[in-house]
């Protein structure tokens, strides 16, 4: 169960030296009934209140993206992230030196690509279009 009391318990544990580790810091995610707040808001609240910095082990951390290619003989700029979240998928990939294709499915929000720090390879209607683009432009 997730409620204020559980969040406050986590806050107190952090004050007593516990580490704050988050799988990702997404602002939102898609459920069957629509968009819902992601863990990012709760991690940020705990960071702010406790003065603790969360260790993010998933997107959008640079380390997450770099770990995905660590076993291959490729440079980050040779890699492309295809995702539906401009911040967590694409900007996270950009921060690691990857290229990005944003797809207008799932979590995509209209005009979210305008907030990106670099130019997309493609703003695709769907995953198939993104893959076709890569195959044709290899």
Could you characterize the architecture of this molecule?
With 138 residues, the protein is of the alpha/beta class. Helix content is 36%, strand content 17%. It has helices at 4-15, 39-50, 62-67, 86-95, 127-136; strands at 21-22, 28-31, 34-37, 55-56, 80-83, 99-103, 122-124. The strands form three sheets. It has a three-stranded parallel β-sheet, sandwiched between helices. Strand 5 (80-83), helix 4 (86-95) and strand 6 (99-103) form a beta-alpha-beta unit. Helix 1 (4-15) crosses helix 2. The longest helix has 12 residues, at 4-15. The protein is globular and about 55 Å long. It starts with a helix and ends with a helix. The mean pLDDT is 94.
Topology of this protein?
Elements: H1 4-15, E1 21-22, E2 28-31, E3 34-37, H2 39-50, E4 55-56, H3 62-67, E5 80-83, H4 86-95, E6 99-103, E7 122-124, H5 127-136
Parallel strand pairs: 1-4, 5-6, 6-7
Antiparallel strand pairs: 2-3
Short structural description:
The chain is an alpha/beta fold. The protein is built from 5 helices and 7 strands.
């Amino acid at each position: 169960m997730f409620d204020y009391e559980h969040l406050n318990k986590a806050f107190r544990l952090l004050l007593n030296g516990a580490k704050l580790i988050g799988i990702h810091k997404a602002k939102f995610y898609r459920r069957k009934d629509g968009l819902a707040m992601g863990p990012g808001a709760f991690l940020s609240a705990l960071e702010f209140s406790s003065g603790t910095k969360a260790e993010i082990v998933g997107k959008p951390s640079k380390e997450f993206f770099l770990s995905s290619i660590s076993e291959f003989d490729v440079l980050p700029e040779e890699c492309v992230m295809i995702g539906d979240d401009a911040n967590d998928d694409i900007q996270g990939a950009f921060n690691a030196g990857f290229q990005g294709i944003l797809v207008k499915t799932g979590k995509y929000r209209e005009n979210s690509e305008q907030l990106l720090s670099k130019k997309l390879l493609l703003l695709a209607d769907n995953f198939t279009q993104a893959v076709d683009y890569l195959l044709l432009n290899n």
